[in-house]
Description:
The complex is a heterodimer. By secondary structure, chain A is an all-beta fold. Helix content of chain A is about 0%, strand content about 50%. Chain B is an all-beta fold. Chain B has no helices and eleven strands. Chain B has strands at about 5, 10-15, 20-25, 30-35, 45-50, 55, 60-65, 70-75, 85-90, 105, 110-115. Classes of the chains: A mainly beta, B mainly beta. The interface of A and B includes residues 41, 88, 100, 103 and 105 of A.
Amino acid sequence: DGGITQSPKYLFRKEGQNVTLSCEQNLNHDAMYWYRQDPGQGLRLIYYSQIVNDFQKGDIAEGYSVSREKKESFPLTVTSAQKNPTAFYLCASGSIGGSPEAFFGQGTRLTVV
Amino acid sequence: GQNIDQPTEMTATEGAIVQINCTYQTSGFNGLFWYQQHAGEAPTFLSYNVLDGLEEKGRFSSFLSRSKGYSYLLLKELQMKDSASYLCAVTLAPGRTTDSWGKLQFGAGTQVVVTP
């Protein structure tokens, strides 16, 4: 079945450690996105990529890094520079110029202690 | 930037109708999405409006007025499973090479509680 997969679903890390969240899609979508969701707030765009080996900062990129070495994969690293990393992270993918629907993964809940 | 407002919470009875309003102020607008999100899960696509008017899809309908910067999602014949957060999101005008459909600006979401 085609879809977008995030792993792990829950992640715990100690403060000061970098952590990488995985996102894989087999929908053949060119574009992939990372959003962060906090209680009482809407999803906020962290980074996005429309083509392999290229990506752009979203609204809240500070303290995060990404790579897009393969079309199917768009991992997000939460670095120690991110001041408040505990959140629900959602990855999405979509067509460029095609169907407007963005497909979301199941999310990773990151807790930093 | 974008400013997108929707109510925080709405409560309705099973079988009733609920209308969730969304207003937006944008510096470029192409279309408006509604997503449903159950707690701890991924948002799922409900509707997309780019032209003025009403789009009906089963028990769910979505309306858009571009001139007023206003949209609503109408949920009819409410069921308990409709208890969820409903997210309004806008996408910027096409033609900008750095944008695509998934680059969305979201409202904070409206939590709908359906009671027996």
